[in-house]
């Protein structure tokens, strides 16, 4: 169903054939229906993601509720038998309120997808069952057998394993890993006519290096290569598509969800690309079936309106703790600190007023020291929890080398700059800042007493 259109942030990509009787609700081909319509949104802001979200079309409930209804159906009926054939031929689609099956398009999931497109400033988006399914789907859509990816050597462990092990074995898609801070090495690694994708994280997991998105996009586009950026660490803070990226992927499970209770992902990009991913014959999202449950989509759509407020507090706390921990002698890595090598770059790229990210790292040098620190922080000071993931309202801590980056071998970790004792902290916002600092300070005094701290 390559010609069937998907919803973008201001409504669907329009299609000229209308559903019978729908003329009075057409509203300039924005696909606004009688029960879910709102006025035609004005032009999306390209400066502030919160402004874009505020201008995103609002879906009302079936009976006029301020919250949208959940379309929980797996399949959808038609009024005339001929209609189904036209739907499968791509003549009629969700832009005219025609739905076939929720693995293909679901109205509730489409609404969340519109919000993600508005958040990232892309034409379109589609939400998936997990972040990894979003990443795998876009890479397999853009690369055929024999394809080539150039990727950052510092990536989430699951993504690294997908690129270094799974895709070569199953799809004959290979990857060259490079230091994306070295623009010359990126340029050399991209082979014009062979390389399909340049892939990197806007802020790297877990080392917190900041990608020079505009320059990397310029290099890739000069050689006809598509740029895919994972923005999981920096929603609201950075807008890669507005800096030149073609596609933005997310693990919605993290900051966008905020509750550590949902697994979900998203692909944000050009409408033509997202539509191609839903094609009945060649689309990875359609054929691999990483379908989001509409009940999950509803939950997430209710959380996005306060994402900006949450991100600002995550970032505010992270900067405060990083600054104070640095003064106490811990080896802190945080791009909001002036001594961080990418501090000036992030200041030039970041959206105004959203800070420098909600994650900081403390390098304890050895795994043993890292584990002792986390044990004190959780079990003696109640500062946070030893758990993977990020974006939760409580602080989450993990030793990256033995957890979320464990898929990398020792040499790969060394090249990525991942110390055996690197503790990644996703800073939460519960309690007052001073209350949480008191808990952290208590823990750090115990760290000094046990001889675990070291000066920079």
TrEMBL record:
GO terms for molecular function: carbon-sulfur lyase activity; pyridoxal phosphate binding. Residues 1-13 have a biased composition (Polar residues). GO terms for cellular component: cytoplasm. InterPro entries: Cys/Met-Metab_PyrdxlP-dep_enz, PyrdxlP-dep_Trfase, PyrdxlP-dep_Trfase_major, PyrdxlP-dep_Trfase_small. The modification N6-(pyridoxal phosphate)lysine is found at residue 254. Coiled coil: none annotated. Residues 20-29 have a biased composition (Basic and acidic residues). CDD domains: CGS_like. Its cofactor is pyridoxal 5'-phosphate. It comes from the Eukaryota. The keyword Repressor does not apply. Residues 1-38 are annotated as: Disordered. Pfam families: Cys_Met_Meta_PP. Keywords: Lyase, Pyridoxal phosphate. One of its GO terms (biological process) is transsulfuration. Belongs to the trans-sulfuration enzymes family. PANTHER family: CYSTATHIONINE GAMMA-LYASE, TRANS-SULFURATION ENZYME FAMILY MEMBER. This is Lyase. It comes from Lithospermum erythrorhizon.
